[in-house]
């Protein structure tokens, strides 16, 4: 039933709900550089697989799928009433979603919209914010706690990894946020309230501050790493910064802003472009509030 529904939805609305074969970088230059999400959506996270982009709703946790070739889309899955924030798609076409104040993570089938699994990490003082995938696990940050949550890709029970070392969590603030893989099996995460960047040992939970050579990443949100290039979205500053990762630190290489930015939160890449959803945190949300996704060339 779910598969028939997905095929019918794709045919009617022109949205590719499966992970299409990757288009060439040159082809992406003909795709729209801005498109709309449903009114009142309140986007935060983005994940791209093939030419399909997925967006979670802070309002009710629903998942929206849009075709980058046209900008058209449809709701893939209805939410549980709590947010859907950071997200990633794995090789099995499953969408892993961070659940914010819900304290959970959810896993969806991108071909059907079916909920495959849910993991309840915490029930109080929690904000599960972002996720990164490794060969074996999905790792989630909690912006209220000095922990990471690890969920095996085979959907077995999760574990909580306490974090020690240089990270100091400020109660009530947005602490660890975006997260990416690092080198030698480590992870890298940004602390939004302090602007600090950390390397995390997933075996021990030890956190080590990364030298930013006098720069700060305050309001750091979504991260994207391509080789030694680390892209950092600084949401309320309306910019994307690119840092070059080295052995002993990270050096600011470039920054980009755009008049279309309205508090972008997270970032995903396709072809030569970066795609960022405008969360519009400074605009009081209403059912008719408009939201867009903006594409820019890498800085």
**What order do the strands of the largest sheet run in, or round the barrel if closed?**
14-18-17-16-15
Main sheet attributes: strand count, strand direction, barrel closure? 5 strands, mixed
What is the CA-based Rg, rounded? 18 Å
Secondary structure class reads mainly beta
What would the average pLDDT be, to the nearest integer? Answer: 93
Secondary-structure element string: HHEEEEEEEEEEEEEEEEEEEEEEEEE
What does this protein structure show overall?
It is a single chain. The strands form six sheets. A five-stranded mixed β-sheet has the order 14-18-17-16-15, with no helix packed on it. Strands 1-25-24-23 form a four-stranded antiparallel β-sheet, with no helix packed on it. A four-stranded antiparallel β-sheet has the order 2-3-4-5, covered by helices on one side. The N and C termini lie far apart (44 Å). The protein has two helices and 25 strands. By secondary structure, the chain is mainly β. The radius of gyration is 18 Å and the shape is globular.
């Amino acid at each position: 039933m779910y598969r028939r529904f997905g095929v019918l939805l794709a045919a009617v609305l022109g949205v590719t709900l499966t992970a299409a074969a990757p288009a060439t970088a040159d082809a992406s230059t003909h795709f729209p550089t801005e498109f709309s999400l449903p009114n009142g959506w309140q986007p935060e996270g983005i994940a791209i697989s093939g030419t399909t982009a997925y967006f979670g709703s802070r309002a009710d946790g629903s998942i929206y799928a849009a075709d980058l070739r046209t900008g058209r889309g449809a709701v893939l899955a209805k939410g549980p009433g709590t947010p859907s924030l950071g997200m990633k798609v794995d090789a099995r076409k499953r969408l892993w979603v961070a659940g914010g104040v819900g304290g959970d993570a959810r896993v969806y089938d991108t071909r059907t919209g079916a909920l495959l699994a849910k993991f309840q990490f915490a029930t109080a003082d929690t904000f599960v914010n972002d996720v990164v995938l490794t060969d074996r696990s999905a790792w989630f940050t909690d912006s209220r706690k000095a922990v990471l949550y690890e969920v095996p890709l085979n959907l077995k029970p999760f574990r909580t990894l306490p974090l020690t070392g240089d990270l100091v969590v400020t109660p009530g603030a947005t602490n660890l946020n975006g997260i990416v893989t690092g080198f030698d099996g480590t992870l890298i995460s940004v602390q939004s309230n302090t602007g600090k960047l950390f390397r995390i040992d997933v075996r021990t939970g030890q956190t080590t501050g990364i030298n930013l050579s006098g720069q700060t990443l305050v309001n750091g949100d979504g991260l994207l790493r391509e080789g030694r290039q680390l892209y950092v979205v600084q949401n309320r500053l309306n910019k994307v910064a690119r840092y070059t990762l080295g052995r002993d630190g990270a050096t600011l290489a470039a920054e980009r802003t755009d008049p279309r930015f309205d508090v972008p939160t997270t970032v995903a890449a396709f072809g030569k472009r970066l795609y960022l959803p405008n969360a519009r945190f400074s605009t009081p949300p209403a059912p008719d509030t408009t939201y867009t996704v903006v594409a820019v060339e890498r800085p």
